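Box S2. Input/output pair 1.
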Amino acid sequence: MLLGKKRKIGRMIEEISVGEKLEVTEKIDDRELLLYLGISNDNNPLFIQHDYASLTPFKKPIVPQIMLLAIVTGAISKYLPGPGSSIKKQEVTFLNPVYHYESLHFAFEVSDVNKQDHEITVKVEGENEEGTVILNGQFVVCPPYPTKPLTKTTSFENF
């Protein structure tokens, strides 16, 4: 239950401006892969079987694209604009495969702030450790709204 607990909320739309940037680096390890595969029940051999993957143009197992998307959406909900935000629309292109154990770098930039519709547009580009672009994307995000008290403080004004 949230009553009485202070929760840090992300930045309001008035606090966000075009050109703001965020950089996030993540490494894909066995732990993350196994957690994803266990939760999703995704048993695609391209993600986990070296013998199968060696027969494909990829030559070795790749990271599921949805895991890359989770890194990006997680950064939006944790940092830009942060907790309390909601993604309204996403357009992502996966340009190159990501292999197990790679370190990835994601660069985010606010490209539009629309106060009338209460949304911002965040562009993202992801690269692997060799500098190869792995994904491009654009997200329309609803920043958090100001919170309102759960109880009225004016209920006893006439006393």
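Box S3. Input/output pair 2.
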Amino acid sequence: MTPGINAARTARVDHDIHEYPHDPASESYGIEAAEKIGVEPGRVFKTLVVALDGGELAVAVVPVTALLSMKRIARAARGKKAAMANPDAVQRSTGYVMGGVSPLGQKRRLKTFIDASAEAYDTIFVSAGRRGLEIELAPRDLAKLTDGRFTALQQE
């Protein structure tokens, strides 16, 4: 089990695990997950780690079909600017490798922001901590486990 799955189990949050054979040649891990699990892509969310202007890292959880607005994540995190974080910094901070970063069970809990579109679904899918492994849970449970806040994060 991954730290993300263990976090959900420890908190006794209802969840389901979905495992599928990951294709390393896949252009989009999130779209691949949606196709192989058999759900609409809008319910599958990617975990992106950004660096804010002061060097602080934050997590954005957005649909795999959307692009993250750097202005919106910066504003939500009370920063001026945001950029994608250095992969080495992401791995050191979260304990996960790129393409398998989960918003759950991170080594160091980062401020987490979840795109408001997640609230439209009973359950959503996020990485469980490695490529080819997704965890399905209620958006409110994801917010509770990560101390996350719902806000608009997608580029318009």
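Caption for Box S3: The radius of gyration is 14 Å. DSSP finds five helices and eight strands in the chain.
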